[in-house]
Here is the input.
Amino acid sequence: MPVNRLEVLPRMRPVVLRNVRCVYCGCDLSDGTRTKDHVVGSRFVPVGTLYQEWNLFVQACRSCNVRKSDLEDDIAAITMY
Here is the structure.
């Protein structure tokens, strides 16, 4: 039985989850559908804080990753306005 434990990770290194299902829709991922997704889009991290230093990466299907990216463009535009 696996033991759940808290692991201390290096501070300025991305965390990469090696999930086998899309984190958004739950479909099985294959080499042809798997994409790496930045959970927090880099355009949402202010320069001077954690910019280009930390992020959480997950595996998502291409369809969900594209939809999320399209939404982020809209949200970024609204935020800048």
Remarks:
- The chain is about 25% helix and 15% strand.
